[in-house]
Each structure stands twice: as C-alpha cells, then as structure tokens.
Amino acid sequence: MSNASRVGKEPSNTGTSVTSFGSSPESKAQITDAETVASGDFGEPLNIYRLVPIASPGDPRWENSPSQGDVVVAARTAGDARIVAAGRELDFMDVDAAPADDVTTAPASAFRSEKLYTVIEIEHARTDVPRGVISGEISVGTIKPVQE
Questions:
Q1: Among 10, 28, 46, 141, which is most buried by a count of CB atoms within 10 Å?
Q2: Could you give phi then psi for residue 132, rounded to 5 degrees?
Q3: From its phi and psi, is residue 77 left (phi > 0), alpha (psi between -120 and 50) or beta?
Q4: What segments bear the compositional bias annotation Polar residues (predicted)?
C-alpha cells in the first residue's frame, strides 16, 4: 500500500520513479560481468593495467583516501581499471555506517583520482584472465571513524 496522496489538480502519484536502473555504463558493465561470471566464459579481451600512486606522501588529498600502493588489474579500459581497483575497497554500503540511505563512497576512492594515481597499460588484449585485481594489497580499512 502506498502512502502517496493527491492534492488538488496534481497528477496522481503511482509511487514509482522515472529513473531507469541499469542505464549507466557502470551498471551495464556490472550486469555484463555478472552474466560472464555465471556462464564461466572469460573470453573477453582485457588489458592489464598498473595503478601507481603519483602524489607525494605529504599531499593533503591522501588524508581523505589513503594510498594503497601499486595495484595491477585486468580491465576493459584505463577508466575501468580505476573502477575495478576502487571496487575492492570497503564501502559505506558494505557496513552499518552509511552516511545516508543508498549513498556509496566508491567515487571518493583514491584510485578514481588522476591527481593521486596514474594508470599504465602493461599488457593488451588478454583473454585468459577475468576482470579484477591481479596483484597488490587493497586494504578494507579505508573507512575511518569521525570520532574516536
């Protein structure tokens, strides 16, 4: 039962949203990845990328998102490599510490910042690896309490 109401000449509220799930490139990639994993076929050509921190250790941007060191990933593009690496970090959505309902912290990852990390392609069109992190330690301790 919906608690939506209609006042005056407003159009009736159906309780549904006009947004369309799965239309963003990231959502489409996630849907494709889920289908690939379910089928067991990892034949998609992927590139191997190394993400390397480029900001100095004293750079204030590291305060928001700590350096994870060098990370090697298999991904479709350099941008996808950033998404793959950021996906391994702990997210507010994964714990009972969400800043707001349905809010993710993935865009705040250091891997997404071109000022903190650079992406270097080291191999091209490999079909023998699944999309994901190949090497490097990515800590899940990226979420820090505001109060101690």
A1: 46
A2: 155, -175
A3: beta
A4: 1-30
